[in-house]
Amino acid sequence: MTNLVYKIAEKEDLIDIVSLLYKDDLGKNREAFNIPLPQSYLEAFENINNDPNQELIVVKFYEKQGFRASHEGMKLILPLTGKANDKG
């Protein structure tokens, strides 16, 4: 199952945003992705965030990883440890 979470961008999202821009074919030649981020990114974020005509939205992608629990693995491991036949 895939979950998309939409939210207003916060400063904490800025590293992920710049990372995505940097990984883009065009962005890799113009973005400066260093941690800590250059001050110019923080200033740009604040300028956009403080503009009442702008709204920065990020979408977080979560995928629930399913698995099947099984005791079959234990059946295989226990004989190797010599504890499969222990009574106690």
From TrEMBL:
It comes from the Bacteria. Gene3D superfamilies: 3.40.630.30. This is GNAT family N-acetyltransferase. It comes from Sphingobacterium gobiense.
